[in-house]
Specification:
- One of its GO terms (molecular function) is 2-C-methyl-D-erythritol 4-phosphate cytidylyltransferase activity.
- Belongs to the IspD/TarI cytidylyltransferase family. IspD subfamily.
- Helix content is about 35%, strand content about 25%.
- The chain is an alpha/beta fold and about 260 residues long.
- The chain has a single domain (about 15-255), classed as Spore Coat Polysaccharide Biosynthesis Protein SpsA, Chain A (Alpha-Beta Complex).
- It has a five-stranded mixed beta sheet with strand order 5-4-1-6-11, with helices on both faces. A three-stranded mixed beta sheet has the order 10-7-12.
- It binds cytidine-5'-triphosphate and the ligand C[C@](O)(CO)[C@H](O)COP(=O)(O)O.
């Protein structure tokens, strides 16, 4: 496992140095959205979330391998979406693999499906369909510079309160050291793979599920750094987020005209 202390540059043959692995996790059920279908296959501006992410990732000039992790029964549909996607000219291979019951299992299956050459791996939620390509590039550059785990983060802007089960406010929480984190989260491949191997895919107590890969790496002793996140990387979780993302997309399209 690449430890946090190693700090060796990630090098290899010239062709291999720049190509990355991206795991797009899209195998969730989308229960909080309640759209009647898995969230990653919901449409935003006429395209599924999977298609939005596919277009962004395959526009990245590094090239590499994108593995899309989906519910098993939607693997065929996903392959059709990939086949129908406009070519980007970048050097990307795309594959599709079935996910697991929990997010961390889906990530592990995705990492296992990547080719050997992918020495840097980005894990991205399909639920963040408008994430700009610049954020993928920012995270990748910081992983290569530091050989640590790197996650995008935004400052928390609301006043925060700790509330009891009785709805009574107990205290105001100092927000200064708190951030809200996003994806893509980037890792030296060996660090991520070893941390997921250590966690395993067996049944875990629901309260003990890591909600992101940075947590998986931290549990294995790795260092996690932050880079500035992007408001466009907003996550689709509830129906209210869909309206917000539609508005962001419309503003983006308006800007492009
Ligand atoms: N077993 C799972 C669970 C989640 N995900 C993916 O992880 C990302 C973040 O998860 P979340 O927003 O929690 O999505 P869902 O699990 O689909 O949502 P919910 O918890 O509301 O069911 C999503 O892109 C989702 O598709 C996954 O690939 N496999
Ligand atoms: C990974 C993640 O997107 C980071 O913000 C997020 O933690 C996953 O979704 P959840 O809503 O926390 O399950």
């Amino acid at each position: 496992m690449t430890s946090a202390q190693d700090h060796q540059p990630l090098t290899g043959e010239p062709h291999e140095v720049s190509r990355i692995g991206v795991v797009l996790v899209a195998a969730g059920r989308g229960e909080r959205l309640g759209a009647g279908k898995p969230k990653a296959f919901v449409e935003l501006g006429g395209r599924t979330l999977v298609e939005h992410c596919l277009r962004t990732v395959t526009s990245l000039p590094s090239g590499g391998h994108l593995v899309i992790v989906v519910p098993e029964h939607l693997a065929g549909e996903t392959l059709r979406l990939v086949a129908a996607a406009e070519p980007t000219g970048a050097n990307w291979e795309v594959s599709v693999t079935p996910g697991g019951r929990e997010r961390h299992e889906s990530v592990k299956f995705g990492v296992d499906a990547l080719p050997e050459y992918a020495d840097v791996v980005l894990v991205h939620d399909a639920a963040r369909p408008l994430t700009p390509a610049a954020l993928f590039a920012r995270v990748t550059a910081e992983v290569r510079r530091t050989t640590d785990a790197v996650i995008p983060a935004l400052p928390v802007v609301d006043t925060l309160k700790r509330v009891g089960a009785d709805s009574i406010v107990h205290e105001t929480v100092d927000r200064a050291p708190l951030v809200a984190v996003q994806t893509p989260q980037g890792f030296p491949r060996e660090l991520l793979a070893a941390a997921h191997d250590r966690l395993g895919t067996g049944a875990h107590d629901a309260a003990d599920h890591p909600t992101d890969d940075a947590e998986v790496v931290q549990r294995a002793g790795g260092t996690v750094r932050t880079v500035p996140g992007e408001s466009l990387a907003h996550k689709l979780t509830t129906p209210g987020d869909l309206a917000l993302l539609e508005a962001l997309l419309a503003a983006q399209n308006g800007d492009a005209r």
